[in-house]
Every structure is written in C-alpha cells, then in structure tokens.
Amino acid sequence: MVNLELYRVFYTVAKCGSLTRAADELFISQPAVSQAIKQLEGQLGTPLFNRTHRGMELSEHGGKQIFDIVARALGELDEAENKLKEINSTATGTIRISASDTIFSYVVIDKIAEYHEKFPAVKLNLINCITTETLDLLKSNKCDIAFLNLPVDDKDINLSGVIMPLHDTFVANKNYAALAEDVQPLKSMHDYPLLMLDQNTVTRKAIINFSHSIGVHLHPEVECGSLELMIQLAKNGVGIACVPKEYVRRELNDDTLFEIRTEPALPARSIGIAFPKNQPVSYATKEFFKLFNKDE
User: Fold this and answer.
1) Which side of the chain, N or C, has fewer Cβ within a 10 Å radius?
2) What distance separates the 2 farthest-apart alpha carbons in the chain?
3) What angle do CA 174, 177, 178 make, to 5 degrees?
4) Domain named HTH lysR-type: which ranges (predicted)?
5) What letter would DSSP give residue 180?
C-alpha cells in the first residue's frame, strides 16, 4: 500500500503548482518533494504531472484522475484528527459517574455543581450503587469514573487516588450519652443494639474483618441498606450506629448524636477514585477528576 504521506505531497504540489512552493508549505526540501512525486508515480505506474515552464500541471490520464479522490480522503483524515483533538481538549459529551448514595451526598455533590457550572455542555449520568456494584460497572466499561469505599483489591480497575479519609466510629442519641463519657472496649459494643450497613457492602466487610482479627464479633440488631437511614434510626434511639465520623459531624456538633469511642478504635479507611482499566479517559472526565486534586 502506498505511503499516505506521498499522497499528501502529491496533493500539495497539485494545489501549489510548483515544487518550490510545495516544499515551503510542507517544510521539506525541494529535492525531497521531487523524489516523493517520482516514488508515487513509480508505485502507481503512471505520470501524475506534466513538467512545464509554468510549473507542475496534473497529467490528463494520471493526476487529474485521482486528485479529487485524494483531496476528499485527506480532508476526511484531517477531519478525523481534528475530531480527536477536540475530544481531547474540549469538555463535551457525557460522563457516567458511579458512586453510592452516601458518597454522592457527602463527597461528590458539591463538585458536581461546580463542574456543571464550569462545563454546562457536558451531560452527567449519575449511577448510584454500592461499591461492589460499581466495580462491576467499571470492569464492563459502563461508567467513566467511579468513587469507591476502600479498601478494594481488584487488579481489573485503575485506582487513581484517594480523595477523602474515613474514620468509622459508633454514635447514638442521648439515651446512650453515658457511654460517650469514657472509652469503651470494642467487644462491649455487641452488648447493645447495633445498627450496621448491609453485610455485602465494603464498609461492613472491612469492619467485620478487623473485629474478627482481634477476636471481637459484632452482630447488628438492624442491618440497613442506606447510611442515611441508619443515622436517622440512631437519632431516634433505635440503637448504636457504626458510621464514618466524617458523615455525622453536624449531628455530633449539635448533640443530636454522641460519639462512643472504643479501644481499639476501628481502623481508618478512605474513598478512592477509579477508572476503567485500559480505556482512554476523555478530556471531560479528566477535568472532573481535577476538581478533587486542585488543592493538592
């Protein structure tokens, strides 16, 4: 197959009508232009130009037969390149963002508002689901950027950074305020009605794995599919909720809830950002990602 650059030289010479002017436009030497034309004519088996005192003219049975086709082909290739450049330098299209209801509410919502104001042309498709479901979306390329409760050990995703620490703790309303006056043994928590997230969540698994590692078995009286529901139940005295402290700061500050510290404390976790593995990241998605790193 003929080298595409030979056709580009042919098109430029035909347009300029001169080897010298074509060389100037292509930023190569005149002998290089002449050699490229000879090479193309040799491969196609026909003269493409008539060399006259006025310059280079397309030959009747060679260059004139292919010029329009070559011009269209090069134009379409230039359009394709420009389209990719636009995608890689302009925030357009759709971003599919996946996270849990809690992460959307406490971590991402302000950034979504900021991004929408900056790039109103970008459509945001928000997919709310728990971390295990988000992992499936990432691996099947059904979301462009995901926010995950860590730890997650999965080599089939591209985990790109940590955006927020999480410190799990126990909270309850005034009915249990006395427990907040001193540090309680972690194992004593199973003596009270515990509220915890569903056992299929990364958060619940991390807490249970840690407690089991030190011989403590925490059995919740109520399992919740939503952290917001669990907080509301705790505020209404149903029991002691195990939640990230970062999500209940307002309630702790206004004494709607009280923190019950334990020994040992539950280990810190975090929220991470991930992308599908081995997939190109659009400019629009990169700009959204930057919102979480601009202060670093």
Assistant:
1) N
2) 104
3) 145
4) 2-59
5) G
Span 108-164, pLDDT tens digits = 999 999 999 988 989 999 999 888 899 999 999 899 999 999 888 888 899 888 999
In terms of Cβ atoms closer than 10 Å to its own Cβ (0-12, 13-18, 19+), residue 291 is middle
Tokens for 234, please give them. Answer: 């705790």
Do 60 and 89 touch, CB atoms closer than 8 A? no
What H or E segment, with its residue span, contains residue 39? helix 30-44
**DSSP-derived pairing of the beta strands 145-150 and 269-276:** antiparallel
Q: What is the DSSP string of 232-243?
A: HHHHTTS-EEEE
Distances in Å between the Cα of 18 and the Cα atoms of 68, 144, 150 are 18, 50, 65
The C-alpha angle with vertex 245 and arms to 239 and 249, in degrees rounded to 5, equals: 95
CB atoms within 10 A of CB 34: 17
At residue 210's C-alpha, the angle toward residues 209 and 211, to 5°, is 95
Cβ of 24: how many Cβ atoms within 10 Å?
A: 14
Where do we find the tokens 């029991």? 239
Banded model confidence at residue 209, pLDDT cuts 50, 70, 90: very high
Q: How many alpha carbons lie under 13 Å from residue 212 in its C-beta half-sphere?
A: 7
pLDDT single digits (tens) 47-99: 999 988 888 999 999 999 999 999 999 888 888 876 776 555 556 688 999 99
* Average pLDDT of the chain to the nearest whole number: 90
Indicate yes or no: pTM above 0.90. no
